[in-house]
Amino acid sequence: MPPDPDSGPNGPNRADAMNADCSASDPPGAAPERSVPDDRHRWRLPARVALLVLVVSILPVPGSGTGDGGSEAFPVLFGLDPFVASHLLGYAILAVCCLRALEAGGTAFSERSRLRVLAAAVFLSAGYGALVELLQVPLPWRSGGAIDAGVNAVGAFLGVAVYLAGRWRNRSR
């Protein structure tokens, strides 16, 4: 029987290789902890939120078309059109998810590159919003437009701003 190339007096075996990056307190055979998630995992939540936004954006809206900004299914509350509120909220959440995914890259950001990351989160979300509005144009039950794309961009900006304000408030305590 030939000797196993992963074990023997001249080389480490598989268990030694697996434990090389583990701390002494980890059980034998434990995989090393990863402090930075790989790209697949850190972009999973933003991708799911983007898919949800897309699905909600292309489905027919029940009772739409009353002309007063609301509908039988979605009345106007507090003077804010429910469709504007949904645009603001949806793209605010998407922008925060994008920001967190960008920040999870594991690199330390200088002040200038930090601003680029914030801008990237807003532009990713706003660009996605513009694309969704374009996809709505050929749908007879939806209407895509520049105003809605602008509201999407404002929602993305507000989401990042509120997230940063909350983080700043927590740090100052």
UniProtKB/TrEMBL annotation:
Region (Disordered): 1-38
Keywords, sorted A to Z: Membrane, Transmembrane, Transmembrane helix
Keyword Transmembrane helix: yes
Membrane-spanning intervals of the chain: 45-63, 83-103, 115-137, 149-166
Protein name as annotated: VanZ like family protein
